[in-house]
Amino acid sequence: MRFKDGSTLQQIAYGKGRIFWAAYPVELAEGTQAAADLYAYIAGKLGITPMFELQSPLTQGVLVYPIELQNSVLYVLVSDSSDDAKVDLRDTLTGTRLTLPLASQHAALAVIGKQEKSVVAKYGF
């Protein structure tokens, strides 16, 4: 399946925004890499920068969800993997490195203080 011009991704202007339309449902691909690559490409086109930089690849089945708060950044980490994982990332807002073991089928929380530029609270590791 392709669009009339032969492409597999279209960008459509809509009001003040843009719609990105993929010819294939990448979320149904085997594994998550196709969706991750597409989302990263679109985020780059929109000028959206990641809130963290991975220092080593994540184990498949591990989700890292950062939430910026007034005085801190909350990291929610969840493992759906059957294997333990090592998380190693750098928060781009504070420059703080977050390294932790994440047990399989478990979750962890980390709070990085914006002023302290360090982990000020943690749970699950």
| Gap from first CA to last CA | 46 Å
CATH architecture of the largest domain: Sandwich
Would you report the number of β strands? 9
Show unreliable segments. Answer: none
Defining traits:
about 120 residues, mainly beta, Immunoglobulin-like, 2 domains, 4-stranded antiparallel β-sheet, 3-stranded antiparallel β-sheet, 1 helix, flat
Summarize the structure in words.
The longest helix is centred in the first third of the chain and has 13 residues, at 33-45. The strands form three sheets. The chain has a four-stranded antiparallel sheet, with no helix packed on it. The protein has a three-stranded antiparallel sheet with strand order 3-6-7, with no helix packed on it. The protein is built from one helix and nine strands. It is flat. The protein is mostly beta strands. The chain folds into two domains: 1-49, no CATH class; 51-125, Immunoglobulin-like (Sandwich), CATH 2.60.40. The protein has one helix at 33-45; strands at residues 9-14, 17-22, 52-54, 62-68, 72-79, 85-91, 97-102, 107-113, 118-123. Strand 1 and strand 2 form a beta hairpin.
